[in-house]
Amino acid sequence: MPSPPPHPDLGLRRLAEDGGARAGVFSTPHGDVRTPAFMPVATRASLKGLTHTHVEQVGPEILLANTYHLHLRPGEALVEARGGLHGFTGIRRPWITDSGGYQVFSLSDLTRVREDGVLLQSHLDGAPLFLGPREATQIQEALGADLIMAFDHCLGLPAPREALEDAVERTTRWTRICAESRTRDDQALFGIVQGGTDQELRARSAHDLVELDLPGYAIGGLAVGESRAATQATLAHTAPLLPSEKPRYLMGIGTPPELVDGIACGIDLFDCVLPTRLGRRGHLYTRDGVVRITHRRWARSDEPLDASCRCETCRTTSRSYLRHLFHVNEHSATTYGALHNLTFYVDLMRDARQAILEKRYGAFRDAFHARWRQGQSAWQEALAKDPHGAEGSRRARERQRARRAAYDERFRPPEDT
Questions:
Q1: Cα–Cα separations (whole angstroms), residue 374 to 103, 274, 379, 381
Q2: At the N or C end, where does the chain have fewer CB atoms within 10 A?
Q3: Any idea of the CA torsion for 100, 105, 110, 114, to the nearest 10 degrees?
């Protein structure tokens, strides 16, 4: 077997530090990435409900696509033949792909872990497929992302210590295979630290992976069943164990307060499905907490969702109009919601970065949490006064689903005889 090419050097430049928080920049073949940064999740190489124009409006530093889902549809060979993710999507920004290891956890009912990888059943049609460290690396090389992830074994929590220990050791072995299986020198491989909330196992995992001298490192296996306090304690313990001269990535987390706290621990990169998923459901983020736009308290509100926000949603629509769109299930509602939430996340990272550069991140963090808590408390008080305020929109959706079902039944094409 030929020797793998040398790892690329991302050249992380730490421009400022304030406590544990840090602001920096690193380089990829498709542009620089300024950190801290949030990476929108484009699972199937698309941000649900958003067009390329919307992506450019949001302006993310980097986007994330899912190896498992793209392997199933349309297949990595088709993507590779069209210039990888950059050519296939036409989005020339930096891309990162996960390895598919998370699906070992999220599709656990359809998986069987072996030493050489994982046997899965497709969630689409039940067809069997195999994914291991070599396969995950080959797929990601074909997809052509700038950053790629090592195949890891993620467990849900709580889990027995013996199982966590096995997953840590297996993750290290699989990461070594990923590194040795590479054939490209323009993709930066990140290792993923596992170990649940066990600090000794986290330290062991970090130590073993750092010895492989990879271009970057991620902290995985959190927000999978543990408490938020346990998440924060594990993160605060683990992040300092990773090389300061390389990017640090916290996988799958989370809410705006969690991002702000993660930055304080020295995290550079984040991803999460929440901003787009909740945006499509009418849960919209502001500095004053989450606005449930379907609640009837907004039915006659002419104010924008967030007067300080630069997004199209906030510049062109009122809360009353947004509530109407969600209430009647207009497709544009999901676009407006996802567009706003992603803009909020990206701008939160930019504001945090500026605070670090100006050596005032501690005050920024405290002010953010105080305003967020105050806004959430105000919402709870409003909800207590009108606990059924969102029921009207729920009943409307139920009626619409019933009408659709009746329509589908009435006009169902006859079966072939």
A1: 37, 21, 9, 11
A2: C
A3: 80
Query: How many residues make up the chain in this entry?
Result: 417
**Residue 257, both tokens:** 């307060």
pLDDT in tens, 281-310: 999 999 999 999 999 999 999 999 999 999
Torsion sign (Cα): 280, 286, 292, 293: negative
Distance of CA 396 to the CA centre of its chain: 31
Contacts of 167 (CB under 8 A, 6+ apart): 153, 154, 155, 159, 194, 195, 221
Three-class DSSP category at 237: helix
Bridge partners of 39?
A: 271
Integer Cα distance of 121 and 116 in angstroms: 17
How far apart CA 108 and CA 402 sit, in angstroms, is 33
Angle subtended by helix axes 331-357 and 361-385, to nearest 10: 150
Report, as an integer, the average pLDDT of 389-413. 62
- pTM exceeding the 0.85 threshold for the entire prediction: yes
Q: What is the DSSP letter of 298?
A: G
Backbone angles phi, psi at 77, to 5 degrees: -65, -40
Q: At a CB cut-off of 8 Å and minimum separation 6, what does 237 contact?
A: 199, 202, 203
Please confirm whether the linkage preceding 36 is cis (ω < 30° from 0). yes
Burial class (CB in 10 A: 0-12, 13-18, 19+), 80: middle
Q: Which are the catalytic amino acids?
A: 98, 271
Instruction: Give the tokens for residue 263.
Output: 């930055």
- 188 strand-pairing partners: 147
